[in-house]
């Protein structure tokens, strides 16, 4: 390993999916990774999450791909429906030619079924240390190292620091200083229900999206097919951050009055709804500051409409780990290389995710009809072409599908 003089201690702020993946990538290069998690316990909340082939490529390189595969539901197609008329607009097959072209499947999991294998691998790795009850609120650094500043006044020393502390990152606040996240004005309502409550004719092995005027509704199986994940989003101009607040069922049903019959049947199955107001940030070119760098949502938070937030964090972790074949003194230069390698691809994904909400999911009237005509005219291969730059990535520094 070029330039290695001794094993480095790399601090990772945040014990979510991105933080654990980063720890595995760094430990794979022989570095000691210390994960500092705000909560006392390492756990993950949330319902369904989609993993594209690029996500599985990253998981394989981190050594946990097979463990996640064993818990995943392999989806047959991505299905786009007109939410008001019930018309099937387009379907992108995810078996046969898709898997052959992109080298991996498309799958959905409960969030814990992605987090759990990463956590188990970290606990088993002798170079990964997991510290709960360690809320990182900032950092300081000098030529000799970096110190993570904790909310209780402690300072944790290390050779480098990775900020993987999410949308409201305290490391980003110090490094970038761009204020709070951008509130999208979109409210999402989520529910998970047992599959045995779903009528047999609606148990589709698909990720299905119903698009309507200023709203869309997505559902897919999770938990080995034992549950159905429901997520309904309304462009309602919400201006304040909301995170996981209980939502009254009547409010959810009333937010989608134009929903067609079949989609309405599914929405009415939901129970114990919770709501979030979606947020992201504008892309920024610089996430590195000497011995400190950002990863995942701390670096490039995005709306969920391209279903790539977790995959981008996994790609980050792989890229960062593979560039960390160095000694402690070289981390500032390697962090700059990682930043330069990842910023264009992640920025494009952030902006595409926003555009999908505006152009594909939420149009009304003539714009919706034009969208339907455009999508329905695409062949299977043309649909695959549209996602190739994302799903087909092997080199996570590139935004186009490799052809060699």
In summary, what is this structure?
The protein has a single domain, classed as FAD/NAD(P)-binding domain. The protein is 34% helix and 27% strand.
Shape: globular
Quaternary class: single chain
Number of domains: 1
Distance between the termini: 27 Å
Strand order in the largest sheet: 6-5-14-15-16-13-18-17
Task: Quickly give the structural class.
Answer: alpha+beta
Q: Which superfamily, in CATH terms, is the homologous superfamily?
A: FAD/NAD(P)-binding domain
- Can you tell me the CATH topology? FAD/NAD(P)-binding domain
- CATH architect. name: 3-Layer(bba) Sandwich
Report on this model:
This protein is 34% helix and 27% strand. The protein has 404 residues and is α+β, with helices and mostly antiparallel strands. Strands 6-5-14-15-16-13-18-17 form an eight-stranded mixed β-sheet, sandwiched between helices. The model is unreliable at 1-5 and 400-404 (pLDDT under 50).
Write the layout of secondary structure elements.
Elements: E1 9-13, H1 17-27, E2 32-36, E3 48-51, H2 53-62, H3 65-69, E4 73-74, E5 77-82, E6 88-93, H4 96-102, E7 107-110, H5 111-124, E8 128-131, E9 136-142, E10 145-150, E11 155-158, E12 160-163, H6 170-175, E13 182-194, E14 206-212, E15 215-222, E16 227-235, E17 243-246, H7 249-254, H8 261-267, E18 274-280, E19 288-289, E20 292-294, H9 309-323, H10 331-361, H11 365-376, H12 380-391
Parallel strand pairs: 1-2, 1-12, 2-8, 5-14, 12-20
Antiparallel strand pairs: 3-7, 4-7, 5-6, 9-10, 10-11, 13-16, 13-18, 14-15, 15-16, 17-18, 19-20
Helix pairs in contact: 1-5, 1-9, 2-9, 9-10
């Amino acid at each position: 390993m070029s330039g290695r003089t001794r094993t480095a201690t790399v601090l990772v702020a945040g014990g979510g999916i991105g933080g654990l993946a980063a720890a595995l990538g760094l430990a794979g290069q022989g570095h000691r990774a210390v994960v500092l998690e705000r909560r006392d316990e390492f756990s993950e909340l949330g319902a369904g999450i989609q993993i594209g082939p690029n996500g599985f490529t990253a998981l394989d390189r981190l050594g946990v791909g097979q463990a996640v595969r064993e818990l995943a539901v392999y989806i047959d197609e991505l299905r786009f429906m007109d939410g008001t008329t019930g018309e099937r607009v387009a379907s992108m097959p995810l078996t046969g030619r898709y898997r052959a072209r992109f080298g991996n499947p498309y799958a959905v999991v409960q969030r814990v079924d992605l987090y759990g294998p990463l956590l188990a691998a970290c606990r088993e790795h002798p170079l990964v240390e997991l510290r709960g009850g360690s809320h990182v609120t900032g950092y300081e650094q000098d030529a000799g190292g970096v110190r993570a500043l904790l909310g209780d006044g402690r300072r944790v020393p290390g050779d480098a620091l990775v900020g993987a502390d999410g949308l409201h990152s305290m490391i980003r606040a110090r490094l970038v200083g761009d204020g709070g996240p951008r509130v999208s004005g979109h409210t999402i309502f989520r529910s998970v229900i047992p599959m045995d409550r779903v009528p047999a004719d609606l148990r589709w092995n698909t990720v299905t999206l119903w698009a309507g005027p200023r709203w869309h509704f997505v559902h897919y199986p999770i938990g080995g097919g034992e549950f159905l994940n429901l997520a309904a989003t309304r462009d309602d101009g919400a201006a304040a951050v909301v995170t996981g607040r209980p939502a009254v069922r009547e409010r959810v049903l009333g937010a989608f009055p134009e929903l067609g019959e079949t989609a309405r049947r599914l929405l009415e199955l939901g129970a114990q709804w919770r709501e979030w107001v979606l947020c992201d940030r504008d892309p920024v070119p610089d996430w590195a500051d000497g011995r400190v760098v950002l990863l995942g949502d701390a670096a490039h938070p995005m709306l969920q409409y391209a279903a790539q937030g977790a995959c981008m964090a996994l790609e980050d972790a792989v890229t960062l780990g593979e560039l960390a074949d160095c000694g402690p003194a070289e981390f500032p230069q390697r962090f700059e290389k990682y930043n330069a390698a990842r910023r264009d691809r992640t920025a494009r994904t952030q902006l595409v995710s926003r555009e999908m909400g505006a152009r594909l999911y939420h149009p009304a009237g003539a714009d919706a009809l034009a969208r339907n005509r455009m999508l329905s005219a695409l062949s299977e291969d043309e649909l695959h072409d549209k996602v190739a730059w994302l799903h087909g990535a092997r080199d996570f520094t590139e935004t186009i599908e490799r052809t060699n």
